[in-house]
């Protein structure tokens, strides 16, 4: 346990300062869903049992929502009570005899990507996107203006999935034309030259492109959480990160990979390196790259993300067209008279294969870094001396414990992971009880506060 309380999360004060106006109403709903979820989950005691069950089934929150919860001091007492109920439910799964049973598999296999707050936001966003799709009247001409309100690309795709094929095709065609227009506008800006520190609001085309590619973008920060910054500075290699008492070793390696990627993006833009190797396409990493502040980086990243999104939209339209043609051919074949041989259609040139959809380079890098760090940890734990050093360090957050535990071989390594995590969670229950006793005595800070913060990090990770 750290000797002093972790300061409140002030990462938004540094990186990620670039902001742009986003007209997507679904992004606004997504932003409002986080305080709404925390108010519902921790604001009323009769919801605590349901909240603790959801947290236990997900093995905690994602790092972003964990950091949000960490700075909500008014919810501190309720949070301690809820997590005190969570720990016994998780401890029941850590018995090695439970390895592989149905409940264990349901929780552990979904844990790395599960988050109750994200699920709450996704339900709210899906409801609104579906309702917008139901009400909208899509133009038959793809060059016509899209109906208002204007959605970002990610939420437009969510809405399009709820449409029937006959309505989805014109909607996707109009959206693809809109993306192509935004890419052309950005390319014109790049050819004309941009000042190094132009604000997106000063360039409507740039602000529009960033809004399309990244949405509101305000939920993401490129700065490093204080414990991770301390671990990155003190531990230049993985073995030292495992033995230190600052943070989860796998979280440290993932953050190291993220910082390397953020440093590589401006260099890739400046030297014209292959876009697919460095430039992101998902909203989170587009927002992070745009938050670096360089105008050329913002424009290039936005153009690349929208180009990939446009290719996907065009491919979806072609798929729908082929499906409609195939259905028409099958309908025509059914009405051919019995015994009449249908006329053979002339064989034309082979159809070109559909374009490959480029995955987000940042997501790929971080996923590879996470898997490599987990594999190195499992190999490292095969030595008894290393297992002892691991037990003396910070250990693993629940998300990375789940990943390592599932991949661990049966024997000493798996037993070490289960016993170590059970020991840390048992200590966490004692810390949370001390925290509630201190709060009852109106002592808001001290060792219990430190334990409370580390307890949240245990279930939410670092990010």
Characterization of this structure:
With 463 residues, this protein is mainly α. The chain has one domain (11-146, 165-313, 357-460). Helices cover 65% and strands 0% of the residues. The protein is built from 20 helices and no strands. The chain has helices at residues 25-43, 48-58, 63-70, 76-91, 102-110, 116-135, 153-160, 165-192, 204-214, 226-234, 238-243, 249-271, 275-278, 283-290, 295-334, 361-380, 384-392, 398-407, 412-440, 447-460. Helix 9 packs across helix 15. The longest helix has 40 residues, at 295-334. It is globular, with a radius of gyration of 25 Å. It starts with 24 loop residues before the first helix and ends with a helix. The model is unreliable at 1-5 and 7-17 (pLDDT under 50).
